[in-house]
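Notes to self after the Tuesday call (sharing in case useful).
The group wants a holo model before anyone commits to mutagenesis around the pocket. I volunteered. Ligand is coenzyme A. Logging inputs and output together so the record is complete.
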Amino acid sequence: MKITAIYPGTFDPITHGHSDIIRRAAKLFDEVILSIAINPGKEPLFSLEERQHLAEIVLKDLPNVRTCGFEGLLAEFAQQQNAQVIVRGLRAVSDFEYEFQLAGMNRTLIPDIETIFLTPAAQYTYISSSLVKEIAVLGGDVSEFVHPTVLAALKEKYS
Ligand code: COA
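Result:
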């Protein structure tokens, strides 16, 4: 049986932490869909098209990964994509409480979908997209945390 997983998030922008998780997921599942939430509540720096374009460049060497934008409920989107699994990354204990709630809610909405947690490599446990943007806007070097294309896109936004 083919197992499809979705890896949802805002990815504003995609970081090495995100790609570490998706690379691990790509080894476990037949197909992984990086699912980019429109998420107007977060007022993203990059448009959905820009976030998708950056993610496609970063993940282009992974044949079983594709990217897709979504609006509305994650559980419904997962069902539309015939996904059996939602992948989430756990960086620290502080992530757990929110993730536990999210997994419980999604299970209540669609009982057949399982949430699976993966942990990134130790050097990525403290990265977040907001911190990367904050450092970039203040002129700091974020080349350790993002792909060179994302670095160039951040420089262009903040130039
Ligand atoms: N490496 C680096 N950073 C990571 C990471 C990792 N492995 N995992 C998470 N992060 C960061 C993200 O970059 C993000 O940083 P930011 O807040 O600075 O941008 C932060 O951790 C939070 O990430 P996440 O929990 O994935 O939030 P999100 O906003 O990216 O995505 C959704 C949350 C999209 C999954 C959730 O809002 C959702 O499901 N929305 C759809 C609506 C819905 O169904 N709601 C009901 C839910 S029950």
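Two things stood out.
The first helix runs from residue 16 to 28.
The chain is about 40% helix and 20% strand.
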